[in-house]
Each structure stands twice: as C-alpha cells, then as structure tokens.
Design goal:
The complex is a heterodimer. By secondary structure, chain A is mainly β. In chain A, 0% of the residues lie in helices and 56% in strands. Chain A has strands at 4-7, 10-13, 19-25, 32-38, 44-51, 57-58, 67-73, 76-81, 90-98, 101-104, 108-112. Chain B is built from no helices and 11 strands. Chain B has strands at residues 4-7, 10-14, 19-25, 32-38, 44-51, 56-59, 62-67, 72-77, 86-94, 97-100, 104-109. In chain B, the strands form 2 sheets. In chain B, strands 2, 4, 5, 9, 10 and 11 form a 6-stranded mixed sheet that branches. Chain B has a 5-stranded antiparallel sheet with strand order 1-3-8-7-6, with no helix packed on it. The relative contact order of chain B is 0.34. Classes of the chains: A mainly beta, B mainly beta. The A-B interface holds A 1, 6, 32, 34, 42-46, 49, 91, 93, 95, 100-107, 109 and B 31-32, 34, 36, 41-46, 49, 51, 89, 91, 93, 96-103.
C-alpha cells in the first residue's frame, strides 16, 4: 500500500513555542491530505482538510490561527501548532487518499510542558 | 450530523476464538466504510474497505460486512491470535468527510 510518513514522531516543547509537524506522501502525489487529533483513549477527530495550493478547510471548533496548515506541494503538508499550550498535547495523525482509500501516517506525539 | 458508535468498547478473549466487532452509523448516505487497526502509540493500518455498493469484503481471517440501510457494519475475526490485540476503528466516509468511531480495544490472551 501507499506510504505516508510524519516527522517528527514525537516532540516535547515549552508552553508558548511553536511546533511544526510534516506529513509526506512517499510514493504518490496527494492533492488532499487530512489532519487528525487523537486524545488518550479517544478516537480520531478530523481537524482540517489540507488542499494543495489553496487554503485548508477547518472543522468546526478548530482554531485556524492556532493550527496553521500549509500544503505547498503534492507530497508535503505541514501543521504548525502556534503558541502551544499543555492542552494542545495530543497525538496528531495525517492521512492521504488514493481513490477511495485512506492511508495514514504513523503519527506525532506532541507534549507541551 | 454523522455519528459512529462501536460495540463493545473493550473485549478480552482467549486465543483461537472467533469474534465480532460492531460499528453503527446514523446517516446511511455514506461513500464507503473502512476498518482500521491501531496499535498503542502508532498510526492506523487499513484492514478492509467496503464501498457503499458492496455488502462485504474479506482478507485472510478478516471479514467485514456492510448493511447500509440499517447503518451497521461488522468485522469478523476468525481464529484470533495474540497478535490481533489492538484497537479496531471503523470510519465512514461521505464526500471528503471522514467520521471515526471510538474504537474497540481487543485483547487476545495466549
């Protein structure tokens, strides 16, 4: 199957700093990627849909100024958590679709101290 | 608004048992339904994808069925093994929107 990678796999940062997470499609081009957040023992919640060359579409309740998404190429989408706070600590997962099937990255564990 | 539920929330079985995981969704106008496996602290691995026009899909010891009219899908795991221990998530797709269920945490005891 298709491979989606994320970097870093984990990150620890101080409150108030910004953190960038990368999502790459390694062997295919993805015009659309998705960003999810998963809190401990909970399911995935879609945060936003990242569209190559255009603005991301955010789900209701997700602050677009806090979670900046850039999809500058067909193989790379980035999520920047700006001015991170402890409540932003979570597992962030990206995905991309080929035809009708979703392929997920391995996730990034963010811990904000 | 689409809501997805999964029953049971957790399941513990001895090795070798056949088991069924259930997924229900409130809006039957879906594009497809996908079952995933998630190991602790890891991303998701796709197990089976069922298109809205299909009724079931099989892969190895896994069989997934879909009854769109009643808003239900089941994942059947035959002859369970300790390596099957993980959280199983179902997700329904409508257009570009994906909605996940809360998952079933499965433990298969040796």
């Amino acid at each position: 199957g298709a491979v989606v990678s994320q970097h870093p796999s984990w990150v620890i940062c101080k409150s108030g700093t910004s953190v960038k997470i990368e999502c790459r499609s390694l062997d295919f081009q993805a015009t659309t990627m998705f960003w999810y957040r998963q809190f401990p023992k909970q399911s995935l919640m879609l945060m936003a849909t990242s569209n190559e060359g255009s603005k991301a579409t955010y789900e209701q309740g997700v602050e677009k100024d806090k979670f900046l998404i850039n999809h500058a190429s067909l193989t790379l989408s980035t999520l920047t958590v700006t001015s991170a706070h402890p409540e932003d600590s979570s597992f962030y997962i990206c995905s991309a679709t080929i035809d009708v099937e979703q392929f997920f990255g391995p996730g990034t564990r963010l811990t904000v101290l | 608004k689409q809501e997805v539920t999964q029953i049971p929330a957790a399941l513990s079985v001895p090795e070798g048992e056949n088991l069924v995981l259930n997924c229900s969704f409130t809006d039957s106008a879906i594009y497809n339904l996908q079952w995933f496996r998630q190991d602790p602290g890891k991303g998701l691995t796709s197990l089976l994808l069922i298109q809205s026009s299909q009724r079931e899909q099989t892969s190895g010891r896994l069989n997934a069925s879909l009854d769109k009219s009643s808003g239900r899908s089941t994942l059947y795991i035959a002859a369970s093994q300790p390596g099957d221990s993980a959280t199983y998530l179902c997700a329904v797709r409508r257009g570009q929107n994906f909605v996940f269920g809360p998952g079933t945490r499965l433990s298969v005891l040796p």
